[in-house]
């Protein structure tokens, strides 16, 4: 069963940092890109970053470019999202999944709340 489990969210003051983790199982990790998505209150789920486990290439949405860094640990089948200079607008539930085609059912995600 394809499964990706998010963790690491929390409540942080604007300007602070958090690191999210995405633990993957049930598929050949090295063959897929993994993406981070977020859903803010009242909005749809949107992709914000992804990383290819084949060649290490990365993508960042303009809203997070320069503040967030995605990385992958193939030995642990885990993808990380280091978030810095957080803003209240980053408040959302964060999810991970294979990219661009989500293989797994969407999990509960991890809540990130940024207060000013």
Question: How does this model look, in words?
Answer:
With 116 residues, the chain is mainly β. It is 0% helix and 53% strand. It has strands spanning 3-7, 10-13, 18-25, 33-39, 45-52, 58-60, 68-73, 78-83, 92-99, 110-115. It has a 6-stranded mixed β-sheet, with no helix packed on it. The protein has a 4-stranded antiparallel β-sheet with strand order 1-3-8-7, with no helix packed on it. It is globular. The relative contact order is 0.32. The mean pLDDT is 97.
Cα distance, first to last residue?
Answer: 40 Å
Structural class: mainly beta
Strand order of the largest sheet: 2-10-9-4-5-6
- Taking all residues together, what is the mean pLDDT? 97
Q: Ranges with pLDDT <50 over ≥5 residues?
A: none
Order of helices and strands: EEEEEEEEEE
Largest sheet: 6 strands, mixed
- Number of E-type strands: 10
What is the number of helical segments per DSSP (H or I, 4+ residues)? 0
Question: What fraction strand?
Answer: over 45%
Shape: globular
The percent of residues in helical segments reads: under 10%
Compute the gyration radius: what is it? 13 Å
